[in-house]
Amino acid sequence: MDTKNALSVEEIIQKHSNEKGTLIPILQEIQESFGYISKDAIETISRLTNYAESDIYGVATFYSQFKLEEPGLHNIKICQGTACHVNGADTVKDVIFEELKLIDYGTTDDKKFTVEHVACLGCCSLAPVMMIDGVVYGKLTPDKIRKILKSF
Known about the structure:
- By secondary structure, the chain is of the alpha+beta class.
- It has helices at 3-15, 23-34, 39-48, 53-62, 82-86, 89-100, 142-150; strands spanning 74-79, 106-107, 113-118, 130-132, 135-137.
- The chain folds into 2 domains: 3-62; 74-150, Glutaredoxin (3-Layer(aba) Sandwich), CATH 3.40.30.
- Strand 4 (130-132) and strand 5 form a beta hairpin.
- The longest helix is centred in the N-terminal third of the chain and has 13 residues, at 3-15.
- The model has no long low-confidence stretch (mean pLDDT 91).
């Protein structure tokens, strides 16, 4: 972690120092600021608070909201809800993985995309759907998915 980020993490910790149950708010704010919670940030939290690194990792891995790896430039969410599932969510996943050369959910080697699955995006009438950077793409076909990905 560079000095600028270390100071920012320290400032976040200091801001919460007089509160009870500070770990989750600290983790949330660090993730909001940096997009994820780095190993260096966890070490800094441990050093400046009474939390052991193992306890911090325990909390950060328990809650799915926390990311321990740096996300890609673009975030792709693949809907796995019932409507999407019966209308081809597996095909959406397969095409995305093929196009981005991914074996599993996560971030591409070039850090351009992070792909994750979500339980439901609430766009059932457009199934199957994916969301990229907050924009929903529906009624997906393999060709449509490829065209969308190429636009990025």
